[in-house]
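Materials and Methods. Structural model of MmgE/PrpD family protein. The 446-residue sequence of MmgE/PrpD family protein from Rhodophyticola porphyridii was retrieved and submitted for structure prediction as follows.
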Amino acid sequence: MSRTFAHIAAFVLDRPAADMPASALRCAAWLLLDTVGVAAAAGPMEAGIIARDTACALYGSADPALTARMMFDGRPVSLAGAGYAAATQIDNLDAHDGYNPCKGHIGVAAVAAFCALMQRAPEMTGPEALAHLVVGYEIAGRAGKALHATACDYHTSGAWNALGVAAMAARIRGHGPAMLREGLGIAEYHGPRSQMMREIASPTMLHDGSGWGTLAGLSAAVLAERGFTGAPAVTVEDAPEFWTDLGRDWLVEDQYIKPYPICRWAHGAIDAARDVVLAHKLGPGDIAHVQVNSFAEAVALFSGLPRTTSEAQYSLPFALAAYLVHGEIGLEQISGRGLVDADVIAMHRRIDVARAARHDATFPACRMADIRITTTDGRILASGDTHARGDRHRPLSEAEIAAKFTELAAPVLGPARGEALCQGLVGLTAPRSRLGDLAPLLLSPA
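The predicted structure was written out as tokens:
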């Protein structure tokens, strides 16, 4: 067993909540709240319905010890099926957290798996539960950086967040180091190495591969329990430079939280427009033209008029047009009648997007853009280079995160259940809190 793996195993299996910074546990609680809100809002969407019905059809379990109920649905399926359904549901409302260095997302898989795994350990305290979640973030983030540094293409998050899921499952289910090693190897081998830019070019319900990543990670842990062996994870054992800071630097504290349910690559442009509109008190009728400059990946986002919610979430010009017309971007603007809003379509025609080398140079550490708005009275209003809100550089306040949760969850769960869930999830940092007390709020049908 390598020194690197021994270090990882000690962190995953033995690091107690008491030896983690309070700030890391608190971040985990707010990330959990944010992702659960996205899961609630995504429940009625077509992709979530299909994923849950498919889990019932394909991923059931005859073993009560490996059965879990699906989030905001209640039907029992296998542990892996419940994680797959929740992650696919969350993934299809692009409002969940992300990690800049990996150009992808951890919480979508970690929280989905966590909500399945917690059902087998109802007595765990809130801090213990948050420590498990922190482990998922810390392992997934480093696996993602290692894989991006060694793989030949840009792959979806499911390729690497599967390892965070497998590690979290090993910790919660009481695995030893040898079993953890097999589980990580199986998860890495079967994690979906799907090409992200294919989904960017033709947006669909595939999104970021995290449903399959969660399925692979949970399945890997169970396979390891049964004696199935896996090749050692290359991202773990052949990339020691990415693991030396494990347990010292806390990646869970470096996640971004999205203010809009849109691909993060578009957020710099939206926030640049927001700054100009608010500073100059512009309305839609004041805007004659918008020039956006951003990094190459943002420019590659879907440029046409979207026909589906998936296309709308991966479209910079449509999302920006929706913001300029409505002053907000929520599910209403990217679905149903929002896709055929005549005012948004007219604004879309006034937006041009171009690549800027200086914004390329800051990616993926930042999501930068600048805009110039030409007004109907001939003024040219420039934003300057703008960093997207929601990460350490421009953080959202806890009040803003709670408001986002309420906006997403309350229409589906009702105000009372939404408020109880908000208070309960944030309250998991309290020493005597119990995760099991939240099960009815998380698992009962919406």
